[in-house]
Design a protein that fits this description.
There is one protein chain. The N and C termini lie far apart (62 Å). With 409 residues, this protein is α+β, with helices and mostly antiparallel strands. It is built from ten helices and 19 strands. The relative contact order is 0.12. The chain is globular and about 70 Å long.
Length: 409
C-alpha cells in the first residue's frame, strides 16, 4: 500500500502540488488506487462499478467561452496493490458534451516511468458518450504496477521547467513573463545572439492539453544542441526560440483550453496585440516576446487527437496576407515543403474574411509583425520517435527554404 501512496499521492518530487483531493479525485482500497490529484490530472467522481470495472467523469473547463463546461481531456494514474498482475477496465464519461463523439478519440497514451507508448487499439472501446480502456498492471512492487493514462502525451509543466534547466549551458533560458497565478513563462534561445539575426519562434499553443506541442519544442531543442552537422548550420545562421509552456496555470490544473481565470487565451491573443488591459497575462508575455524578437517565422505548435484527421495537419494563414511578393513566395515555398513531409496534410486557411482564427497569436504575428506563420498540429496517435522526426524535419524544411531564397545566404 505504501508504494502506491508514495507514487500517486506524494508524487514525483518535481511535480507541483496544485490539485487537492476533495474526495472525488481518488479511489483507493486494499487492492488498487486510481487518482487524478496530481499535476495535470483530469477526472473526478472516481468510483468502482464492481469487480475490476471502474469509472470517472472528465472535469469540464471553467469560464464562459466556447469550450466552457466541456470535458474532453483525461489524465489519471493507476497503481496495483495486489501481489499479482491484473487487468482492469476504466470507463470515462464527459460531463457536458460538445457535439463530438468519443468515436473520434480512438487512441490513448500510457506513461510508464519516463516513457510514453500508445495503448493497444484492441484495449480501447468507444461509443458516443463513453470511452473505456483495459489496462494491464504488473504485480505490486514492479515498475509496471503504476501507469498514467491520457488521451494526450501528458508532460507536467514542472518537468518542462526542470528540462529547460538542463539546457541552460547549451542555450539561453529566459523568463519572458509570468502567468496569472505567478508561474514563470520561459523561453529557450539557441543559435545566434545578434539582435538582427534571422529568428524563428516556436511556441506551444496556450491550449494546455495539447501536449505534443511541448514535446515538439523539446525535440527541436535537443536536436539543435546535439552533434548533427545540419543542426549546427541552423545554429550558425539563425536564432531559434522555443516556448514550451505558454499557459502554465492551465497545464498544472489539468484544463483542456482554459487558463486559471477561465479564459480561452488562444482566442484572445488579439487583445494583447491591441494593448487591451483585459488581455491575459500569458498572451501579454508572448506578444511582448514576439515584438522583441521580430521573427521571420512564427509557429504556434498544436497537437490533435481526432481520429478523423489523417495525420499531422497544417492550419494555414493565407500567404496573401504578406505585404510583399518576396515574403509571399518564401511563405508558399516553406508550406509546400511542409506538405511534402510524411503524414502531413492541409486542413484550412484563415484570412481576414475566412476561418475563425483571426484572434490567434499567429494571425497577429502575420498581420502586425510581417511574420510567416501557420499552426502545425502534430497528431497524438503517433509514437514520440515519429513525432520527433517530423518536428525536426519541419524545422529543416523551413530554414533550408529560407537559405535557398534569392540572397538567402
Amino acid at each position: 500500500m505504501e508504494l502506491a501512496v508514495s507514487i500517486l499521492h506524494r508524487y514525483d518530487p518535481r511535480w507541483e502540488d496544485v490539485r487537492r483531493d476533495d474526495g472525488a479525485l481518488a479511489y483507493e482500497d486494499d487492492e488498487i488506487l486510481i487518482a487524478t490529484d496530481f499535476e495535470g490530472g483530469n477526472g473526478t467522481g472516481i468510483g468502482r462499478f464492481g469487480g475490476d470495472d471502474f469509472g470517472l467523469v472528465l472535469e469540464a473547463d471553467p469560464g464562459d467561452h466556447r469550450f466552457a463546461g466541456v470535458g474532453y481531456y483525461v489524465c489519471f494514474g493507476v497503481a496495483n496493490k495486489r501481489p499479482s498482475a491484473r487487468s482492469i477496465r476504466v470507463r470515462m464519461r464527459t460531463r457536458v458534451h460538445s457535439g463530438e463523439s468519443w468515436h473520434d478519440h480512438r487512441h490513448m497514451i500510457v506513461r510508464l516511468g519516463g516513457a510514453w507508448r500508445q495503448l493497444d487499439r484492441g484495449d480501447i472501446r468507444t461509443n458516443r458518450e463513453d470511452l473505456e480502456v483495459t489496462l494491464r498492471l504488473g504485480a505490486a512492487g514492479r515498475p509496471d504496477a503504476t501507469l498514467f493514462v491520457s488521451n494526450f502525451h501528458w508532460w507536467p509543466g514542472s518537468e518542462r521547467d526542470a528540462w529547460l534547466d538542463t539546457l541552460g549551458g547549451r542555450g539561453r533560458v529566459r523568463e519572458i513573463g509570468s502567468s496569472h497565478e505567478g508561474r514563470a513563462i520561459r523561453a529557450l534561445e539557441i543559435g545566434r545572439t545578434e539582435p538582427d539575426a534571422p529568428t524563428v519562434v516556436i511556441a506551444q499553443t496556450t491550449q494546455p492539453s495539447e501536449m505534443m506541442a511541448a514535446h515538439a519544442c523539446r525535440f527541436i531543442a535537443e536536436h539543435l544542441v546535439g552533434d548533427d552537422e545540419a543542426a549546427a548550420e541552423i545554429c550558425a545562421r539563425f536564432r531559434v526560440c522555443l516556448v514550451p509552456n505558454t499557459n502554465p496555470d492551465g497545464t498544472a490544473r489539468g484544463h483542456g483550453v482554459a487558463d486559471a481565470r477561465g479564459h480561452f487565451p488562444y482566442f484572445e491573443a488579439d487583445l494583447a496585440a491591441q494593448g487591451d488591459p483585459a488581455a491575459t497575462a500569458e498572451n501579454r508575455a508572448l506578444w511582448r516576446y514576439l515584438r522583441e524578437q521580430r521573427p521571420w517565422l512564427f509557429w504556434e505548435w498544436h497537437s490533435n487527437n481526432w481520429f478523423r484527421r489523417p495525420g499531422h495537419v497544417l492550419l494555414r494563414y493565407r500567404s496573401s496576407l504578406a505585404g510583399d511578393p518576396a515574403t509571399r513566395s518564401l511563405w508558399d515555398a516553406v508550406e509546400q515543403r511542409l506538405l511534402r513531409l510524411p503524414n502531413t496534410f492541409h486542413e484550412s486557411f484563415c484570412s481576414f474574411d475566412e476561418g475563425p482564427y483571426q484572434p490567434s497569436m499567429g494571425f497577429q504575428a502575420v498581420t502586425r509583425l510581417g511574420a510567416i506563420s501557420c499552426m502545425i498540429k502534430q497528431h497524438e496517435k503517433y509514437d514520440l520517435d515519429e513525432s520527433r522526426a517530423h518536428a525536426v524535419a519541419c524545422l529543416h524544411a523551413a530554414t533550408s527554404t529560407w537559405l535557398a531564397r534569392p540572397g538567402g545566404r
